[in-house]
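Re: that backbone. Tokens:
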């Protein structure tokens, strides 16, 4: 079973592609108002459930984003799947 957001189907049972973007957002910012962690999940998802897609953003000295990195999954690979807990975002290893 996947935790990826569900999309909506039209009258001909085809996926409406824009509908998979209906996600809840969480963010954590540093003291310079830079977004450090971003997370997406289905609306209403508890932050303690492993249903979040999380990424970490890094910045240069001028506050420009230099990279977006993903947490490692159970296999040790970078993953953008919806299998992480928002509450644990700072404990993951990002690659």
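Recovered sequence:
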């Amino acid at each position: 079973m996947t935790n990826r957001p569900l999309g909506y189907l039209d009258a001909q049972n085809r996926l409406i592609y824009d509908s998979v973007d209906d996600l809840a957002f969480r963010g954590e910012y540093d003291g310079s108002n830079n977004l450090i962690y971003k997370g997406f999940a289905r609306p209403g998802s508890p932050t303690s459930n492993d249903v979040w897609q999380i990424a970490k953003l890094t910045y240069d000295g001028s506050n420009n984003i230099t990279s977006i990195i993903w947490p490692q999954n159970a296999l040790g690979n970078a993953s953008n799947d919806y299998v992480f807990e928002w509450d644990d975002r700072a404990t993951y290893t990002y690659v």
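Strands lie at 8-9, 15-16, 24-29, 35-41, 50-59, 65-69, 84-85. Residues 24-91 form one domain.
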